[in-house]
Write a structure and sequence with these properties.
Layout (H helix, E strand, L loop, with lengths): L1 E3 L39 E3 L39 H9 L6
Parallel strand pairs: 1-2
């Protein structure tokens, strides 16, 4: 089993509800990518999602707007999905566990 550790370094996060996924406030990098997990059921910790990219826009008038990206638990303002979001990357680094 592989575990995505790109945004799980800090718990709890700013999520209001389970399933809030878009540019969530309070997330941080988790375990560094490795196959040395210390758990026989976990093959590797990986980082799949690029942490400098927005998950989606907070602009309610945008064509690709998703309501999850406009919640109070999201980092705003945020550009369209896939666009560089410097403040999100900085949050990931600042909240990393273990620290960078």
């Amino acid at each position: 089993m592989y575990l995505e550790a790109g945004r799980n370094g800090k718990q709890p996060t700013g999520q209001n509800e389970w399933g809030d996924w878009c540019n969530v406030k309070g997330t941080g990098f988790g375990a560094r990518p490795t196959t040395d997990t210390g758990d026989e059921l976990v093959d590797a910790f990986v980082r799949v999602k690029s942490s400098e990219e927005s998950d989606g826009t907070s602009d309610t008038s945008a064509k690709r707007y998703d309501a999850h990206c406009g919640l109070g638990s999201t980092l705003q303002p945020a550009p369209e999905a896939g666009i560089w979001l410097q403040s999100y990357l900085e949050q990931q680094v600042d909240s990393a566990n273990p620290p960078l």
